[in-house]
Design goal:
By secondary structure, this protein is of the alpha+beta class. The protein has four domains: 204 residues, Multidrug efflux transporter AcrB transmembrane fold (Up-down Bundle); 116 residues, 2-Layer Sandwich (Alpha-Beta Plaits); 123 residues, Alpha-Beta Plaits (2-Layer Sandwich); 176 residues, Multidrug efflux transporter AcrB transmembrane domain (Multidrug efflux transporter AcrB transmembrane fold), CATH 1.20.1640.10. The longest helix has 36 residues.
């Protein structure tokens, strides 16, 4: 059996359209089961952990520390700090003591009631001016963090005192809360309505515009249900929800847009309803299948990254990508079989009539642009290449890092607590560097290690980037831990640089000549290992995605030139997006105008994530456009005519699809989480570039200059299977038969 037949989506579309209620019923059942899984399993199955999975130094330091100092089950280790300050009272006053006793000692919140305070005689918990105190406490989970935050906010209402809390658990809680707010405000309140407006303008009819939105919602819910099931045996990040929702809206809408527009085009040519569905199944649905495959291939590259959050984002994208493709190949034809021409119901005045009349025809605006480009292909190619290379050049100044508590809006408790801690206790931190020193059991080895650790602590105490550390010795005597504060936000570039130097220079210098094993842990060290986990694998991931995408496109279009051109153009759009990311966020160009935070770093996961996502999404346009060009070329054997027709006839659909994704990811960029601002902006600008400069200028001019070489396949690759996207259909009056595409 020929592989072209095996991958033929026409019969699947026809079968779904002729038995619509069976297909719709099956999808309803799957949808209901997904909702049940989401409600019962999803909430407790996701985490905020973004740790590397390759056992780096920071993880080994934690393990060694836990082994040497087993946690007391009766008392949680300190994770957060409550800061209490008063302008009117000192810590010695009865009012201050009574306030602390009420808030902490007599609290019904377990984490607070178990905490130790200065009332027990620990003067280290009191500020130099004696108007503030800190209360270290251990918070076990998100639920307890919420209870602590609520208690602190109630206490802060007292005019005589200011109370705030900060630390790991409260920061995680605030990040999750902000993530949900951004999802609501950006994707649901902005992205979804904007996508609907664009769909209505593209289709010119309410029913046709709502179908892609319905498909996207079904895909998102079903993929979330699958995520809930996967989150039970595997640890998945909370950010998978944002990723899955955004990609689900983009892919679900795009794939439906391609299929529905082709169906309306075939109906406009006079095909009967089921002929039109079969024809769209043979052409647009097959393009969707290979577009989705290219997207999933690109996402698989992120699974090579030894980091839980990157793998979670990849899993979310892969799940919603697969569900979106399956829905477009089955549920969508079933809906078209039920609706028929009622898909054009509730037409929008003026826009609706013009849209139907122009279905499948060449758009005048884009047609004029592509003709102008093809008249001067060399000039068009040089100018567009120059623009994209210029936009990409700022990549050379990209500085990767991560945003911590200091990047949160001031309204969040953990940010307020961080500022209060810096103000009243500049030498304190919830995230010190943990230097774990292990030595032999011999007395001489222990003495050498102890002396070296004392030297290191003295050295760090005189360094303004660090504070005075405390040393603990394990009962066994062969492990000691120095907890040393790091100035400022532990995620800041300054803290990261300081701990990098500590690891690479200061520790080796202090422990030179000893046989001790020294591991540097703590939040800043975890960040350094996290950066390495997402940066070091980048060449492998990029090579993996480029190679598999090239091979897939070569097989699909039976041309090494088309495949190489598509890969090169996608690299250009990604490079331009990187450059704009640096200009806007690191250099602050137009940041205020766009409502973004200026920062000195690009989130470490964003560049690799953007590469994979943009490569996958760009293939949607490339496959859809190139399939129309190849389809026309098989009919006319004229490259110039094929390019003109392909660009002109797909322009409205591709532009609409791009604008929808831009709207969806602009919703991310409208949020307050800087990581999502960068991701949303990066995706949006890259797809705008891809759908305009790449599609209308660079690709046509390159294909015009290449001519027949576009379709070159070396003779030694003739054995490759024929999985062409393009196809044709004969029906209506005669037999309804999917025809083999041309093999030229």
């Amino acid at each position: 059996m020929k592989l072209a037949r095996v991958f033929s989506t026409g019969p699947l579309a026809s079968a779904s359209a002729r038995h619509p209620w069976r297909v719709v019923g099956a999808w309803i059942a799957v949808f209901v089961l997904a909702v049940v899984a989401i409600v019962t399993l999803l909430g407790d199955g996701l985490s905020t952990d973004d740790a590397p999975t390759n056992n780096p130094e920071s993880e080994r330091a934690i393990a060694a520390q836990i082994q040497a100092f087993p946690p007391d089950p009766r008392r949680m280790p300190s994770s957060d700090i409550v800061v209490i300050h008063s302008d009117q009272h000192t810590v010695d006053s009865p009012e201050f003591e009574s306030f602390v006793r009420t808030l902490v000692v007599e609290s019904d919140v377990l984490a607070l009631s178990r905490a130790h305070t200065y009332l027990e005689g620990n003067t280290a918990l009191v500020s130099a001016d004696r108007r503030a105190t800190i209360v270290p406490l251990g918070i076990p989970d998100e639920g307890e963090a919420e209870a602590v935050i609520e208690a602190v906010e109630r206490a802060d209402e007292d005019a005589a005192f200011s109370v705030a809390v900060t630390g790991d658990q409260t920061l995680d809680y605030d990040f999750n809360l902000l993530s949900q707010e951004d999802l609501e405000k950006g994707e649901l309140q902005f992205g979804l309505p904007a996508a609907l407006i664009i769909l209505l303008l593209v289709f010119g009819a309410v029913v046709a515009g709502l179908i892609p939105l319905l498909m996207a919602i079904v895909s998102i819910v079903v993929a979330l249900g699958l995520t809930a099931l996967l989150a039970q045996p595997f640890e998945l990040s909370i950010f998978i929800v944002n990723m899955l929702t955004g990609m689900g809206l983009a892919l679900g809408i795009d794939y439906s847009l391609f299929v529905v527009s082709r169906y309306r085009e075939e109906r406009g040519r006079g095909h009967e309803q089921f002929d039109a569905i079969a024809a769209s199944g043979l052409t647009a649905s097959r393009a969707v299948l290979f577009s989705g495959t290219a997207f999933v291939v690109a996402m698989f590259g992120m699974l090579l990254v030894p980091n839980s959050i990157m793998r979670s984002l990849a899993v979310g994208a892969i799940l919603v990508g697969i569900v979106s493709v399956v829905a477009a190949l089955t549920l969508l034809p079933a809906l078209l079989g039920l609706l028929g021409d009622r898909v054009n119901a509730l037409r929008i005045p003026i826009v609706g009539r013009r849209t139907l009349e122009s279905a499948g025809g060449e758009g005048r605006f884009w047609g004029a642009i592509v003709r102008s480009v093809l008249r001067r292909p060399v000039l068009s190619l040089v100018l567009s290449l120059g623009v994209l290379v210029a936009l990409a050049l700022p990549i050379l100044a990209m500085n990767v890092g991560t945003s911590g508590v200091s990047a949160l809006p001031d309204r969040f408790s953990s940010k307020q607590g961080f500022l209060a801690l810096e103000r009243n206790f500049p030498g304190s931190t919830t995230d010190p560097v943990e230097i774990v020193v292990s030595s032999d059991s011999s007395d001489s080895s222990r003495a050498e290690a102890s002396a070296a650790l004392d030297r290191l602590r003295t050295m760090l105490a005189g360094d303004p980037r660090f504070g005075t550390g405390e040393i603990r010795l394990a009962e066994s005597g062969d492990v000691s831990v120095a907890s040393v504060p790091v100035a400022g936000d532990p995620s800041s570039s300054e803290a990261v640089a300081a701990v990098r130097e500590l690891r690479s220079e200061l520790v080796p210098q202090a422990f030179e000549g000893t046989d001790a094993e020294v591991l540097v842990g703590g939040t800043t060290s975890e960040n350094i290992d996290y950066f390495a986990s997402v940066i070091d694998p980048a060449p492998l991931v990029i090579a993996f995605v480029l190679l598999l995408t090239f091979l897939l496109l070569t097989v699909v279009f039976r041309s090494v030139v088309v495949a190489a051109t598509a890969v090169a153009l996608n690299l250009l759009s990604v490079g331009a997006a990187y450059g704009l990311l640096v200009l806007v966020f690191q250099y602050g160009i137009a940041a205020d105008l766009l409502g973004f935070q200026e920062t000195d770093t690009i989130e470490a996961w964003v560049p690799l994530f953007l590469f994979s996502v943009l490569f996958g999404l760009s293939m949607d346009y490339q496959v859809f456009l190139l399939s129309r060009i190849r389809e026309r070329y098989d009919e006319t054997r004229d490259t110039t005519d094929a390019v003109t027709f392909g660009v002109g006839s797909t322009a409205r659909i591709i532009t609409g699809a791009a604008l929808i994704i831009v709207a969806v990811f602009s919703g991310f960029a409208r949020g307050d989480l800087i990581m999502f601002q960068q991701m949303g902006f990066g995706v949006a600008v890259a797809l705008l570039i891809d759908a305009t400069i790449i599609r209308s200028v660079l690709l046509p001019s390159a294909m015009r200059l290449l001519g027949r070489w576009n379709w070159y396949l070396p003779s030694w690759l003739e054995w490759l299977p024929r999985l062409q996207v393009e196809g044709s259909y004969q029906g209506s009056a005669g037999t309804q038969t999917p025809l083999e595409p041309s093999r030229n």
